[in-house]
Amino acid sequence: MKLQFKHQKFQSDAAKAVCDVFSGQPYLTPTYLIDKGNEQGQGSLIEYTGWNNQRIVPELNDGVILENINKIQRSYQIEPSNQLEGRYNLTVEMETGVGKTYTYIKTMYELNKRYGWSKYIVVVPSVAIREGVYKSFQVTQEHFAEEYGKKIRFFIYNSDRLTEIDRFASDSSINVMIINSQAFNVKGKDARRIYMQLDEFRSRRPIDIIARTNPIVIIDEPQSVEGKQTKERLKEFNPLMTLRYSATHKSDSIYNMVYRLDAMEAYNKRLVKKIAVKGITETGSTATESYVYLQGINLSKSDPTATLEFDFKGSAGIRKVSRIVGIGYNLYDNSGQLDEYKLGFVVKAIDGRDNSVEFLNGIKLYAGDVIGKVSEDQLRRIQIRETILSHIQRERQLFYKGIKVLSLFFIDEVARYKQYDAAGQASNGIYADIFEEEYNDVINNLQLQFGEDDYIKYLEAISAHKTHAGYFSVDKKGRLIDSKVGRRETMSDDIDAYDLIMKNKELLLDRDPKKSPVRFIFSHSALREGWDNPNVFQICTLKQSSSDVRKRQEVGRGLRLCVNQDGERMDSNLLGNDVHTVNVLTVVASESYDSFAKGLQSELAEVVADRSRAVTVDLFMGKVIRDANGNEQVIDMGIAQAIHFDMIMNGYIDRKGALTDKYYADKANNEIKVAEEVQDSAADVLAIVDSIYDSKAMLPENARSNNVELQVDPDKLAMPEFKALWKRINSKSVYVVDFDTDELVRNAITALDARLRVSKIFFKVETGHMDNIKSKDALLSGDAFIKEASASYGTGAKIAVNHGVKYDLVGKLVEATGLTRKAVIAILTGIQKAVFDQFKDNPEDFILKAAALINDEKATAIIQHITYNVLDEHYDTDVFTEPTIKGRLGVNAIKATKHLYDHIVYDSNNERKFAEDLDVSNDVAVYVKLPDGFYISTPVGRYNPDWAIAFYEGAVKHIYFVAETKGSMSSMQLRLIEESKLHCAREHFKAISSGNVVYDVVDSYQSLLDKVMK
After folding, report:
1. Three-state secondary structure along 973-1001?
2. Which residues, 6+ apart, have CB-to-CB distance to 794 below 8 Å?
3. Residue 303 in this model has a pLDDT that exceeds 90
């Protein structure tokens, strides 16, 4: 398998943010003479011309650089820096699992492309990260070479291979040296060779040769690298600048942050897996010492059942068994009449609403609860079994999507997995034995469904013994051994273990059972930082979580979005809204869900500590927002108060400023309302609101809570009414856009003349004085100073604005609009002179706003001239049977009688009411909430209609209806993109159904009836 990489906007944004700091720097590639050193015996084999990074030109003084940084920070809602933190230190925050290494490799290419800089040093804290970084350079090399037309030369610093340093200095292409901090971070008695004059290096010091190149230093995980001593040592590299990349920067080491994609934003943008937690709670009971474990509740069309584990007395002794039970099930009778179950262990009630089972003796268990005598080994057995169950469940969902599922166990003692006798012969440890026993039991009791023949063959081809493997350090005799960890450390630097992990990364993703039968991996807990396989879906730590093991570290190894057998990443570009249906990481914890979730949330809260915790007036004050045309506006006190008041009136925030469920419901349904004053900038206002830290939004899912999995009703699928409906709507289509370029040019000229207004750059000088200090608050708020006068210096004052910076106006507009150079030139030469002259006042603002206005006209032209043609391709009914749709009864799922599925999972109260009305209507034959796999292609992205409904013939005028539900028709305020998608949907259904299917937007069942009766 070859992993595929794609361009993602957030990674490009992060690279651009770093590059834009030095906007105005010319493209230069200077050379110099490398120190020859002692040439004895070298002859003419050494190339002495060196290539280094050009220093920042004098025109880009500290004031200009700081202003560039502030502009970037304002655009990303980052608190503007008051000063430069050295020359130059830039910070980029990127959450684990989103492609941090990819991002800084892309940044290297972009810096080289714009400014000619070609020497880079990547400093890492450990062997684990070093090996991972090196692997990333390898697997992305072809991908970046296709984009940029050149390859990076990269190597790991090794003091025994010093010729690499000469090549680093003398090679004109992009060169990267990867070095772990230990290689240069010790002096004195344990002096490192990098500082020594070495005979084999012609009596030169390696550090001196490196420093002459003015390298750009990139620090990966600076919080683990930068102690006081390391900071001093790094200065000896003579860096042109230092870039720091991490998900967890120390609060006192954030220097001029230019881009931030923290845990909250990555999660909300679906760039990492959703986290679910399976907790296990030991419940003490004075009434009994009887062992009972409630694995879960099973809900279907029939009465609910429960899966219980309990002791069973057989001919070979007492063992644990797992059984699916209903109301009236007697544990005493079914345990071989064990006395511990004699007193009232008869199932009295099974409740799917709170996932509980109650016995006649009054004992009530919730899913994940265990009572009775539970040893350490028994708790680990439960964890292993639950991991296997989660694995099989996830594997069944993803098998037909071509995705290999992996599970990862962390243990702290190899002997528990593998043991050796005196002759060195290996045998299973206790955890390996438990795994094989539980795996065989789960597989043998698997209730397979119709159509799973290929999956059954897959399971049959892999034995329990071959499907697990250990990734540990290896001694000289080839035996697995515990990783070596320093006294104050929590992770290992064992190269051989990481080598195994990295080399087998692609092999582990192969689903061929002969090539790669391993699906369950046991590894040392100290090797956590080396694991970044994207297809890890379950993580189980078979040890007590101690204070030195952070829960965020525990889940971090499985956060990356998974890939399929073609190496394609399963992200929103491929899956749309299904990203977090496919990409779910389940943590099988040795504690309760509440305990684990609380611990994880508190750690996440620490990481996003600088985010606001409530929606207040101050949250909006001073923020810059843009309308659809790119016009900027700074929010003042009056507008901030209006936005805040409007959110209160709409029920979006409570008395403490916390976001309500109504806010999230309206947002999910594109029904958010904002204050009238900022309606044209609604997207930016919502981005500010979403920047607050809301613990509810970051709450990991309880893996046991979604207890309803929708099942297609085969009788409904076979109904003649549904077959007729499906036949009319299942055709696929392709759109064609045929608009007149000359007309677009004319419309763009009109729009620019009428609406292009560029803000001039000016400097404001204010004077004031401070009479006295009334309080600390007055100092903090700035009220202690009294303003006396102010004056402005505009462009007319002959102050150089963007001096020395050249702009390719036509090229930038071609890039931003996708039009030809000819069309862009026609637009620019056609607009009024006064409009065009605004370019010299503020070039960047002119380009931004002009591109937005041209794109608006282009979008309008596309929609006005779009036609749909029917294809021979059709959607199959597997769009209903293939996806796994889950919900929780009483929370977002209800039973249904006329729905194609046995339940409905709804997104809002309005959807629930609409479905309930459909379900009881005598006019409705069958209906379905369409899954995300059923979509219409449009120029502005995929569109997924909400409902397909078939009425009984004779009851209504229009029998077949496709509906989009919106909460309020009167105040809908649909955005342009939403309107465009709805227009495209109407054209699509016209094309495929010849008018037999009606498509429209409704807000209730009554409004649906009004439309089908017409």
Report:
1. CCCHHHHHHHHHHHHHHHHHHCCCEEEEE
2. 760, 761, 762
3. no
Instruction: Tell me how many degrees the CA angle 408-414-417 measures, rounded to the nearest 5.
Output: 65
Question: Are the C-beta atoms of 185 and 235 separated by less than 8 Å?
Answer: no
Phi, psi of 475 (to 5 degrees): -85, 180
With vertex at residue 628, the alpha carbon angle to CA 624 and CA 629, rounded to the nearest 5 degrees, is: 90
Nearest-angstrom CA–CA distance, 387 and 520: 9
Q: What is the mean pLDDT of the chain?
A: 83
3-class SS of residue 522: strand
Which tens digit of pLDDT belongs to each residue from 988-998?
999 998 778 88
Q: Which residues contact 115 (CB under 8 A, 6 or more apart)?
A: 19, 22, 25, 26, 27, 28, 54
Which residues are CB-neighbours of 706 under 8 A, at least 6 positions away? Answer: 886, 887, 888
Residue 162's SS3 state is coil
Assign 3-class secondary structure to 29-70: CCEEECCCCCCCCCCCCCCCEEECCCCCCCCCCHHHHHHHHH
CA separation (Å) from 824 to 224, 813, 821?
50, 7, 5
Write out the two tokens for 605. 């809260």
Q: 77: number of CA atoms within 13 Å, CB side?
A: 21
Most confident of 352-366, 658-672, 688-702: 352-366
Torsion of CA 154, 159, 163, 164, to 10 degrees: 10
* C-alpha to C-alpha distance for 104 and 850, rounded to whole angstroms: 31
Neighbours of 992 (CB within 10 A): 21
Q: Read off the pLDDT of each residue in 470-497 and give the average, rounded to a whole number.
A: 52
Neighbours of 679 (CB within 10 A): 12
Higher pLDDT, 253 or 542: 542
Strands 584-588 and 536-541, bridge-based pairing: parallel
Mean pLDDT check: name the lowest of 182-191, 363-372, 796-805.
796-805
Tokens of 886: 């889950």
Q: Identify whether the C-beta of residue 273 lies closer than 8 Å to the C-beta of residue 583.
A: yes
Q: How are beta strands 468-471 and 356-359 bridged, if at all? A: unpaired
Helix axes 809-817, 821-830, angle to 10 degrees: 120
Percentage of the chain beyond pLDDT 90 is: 34
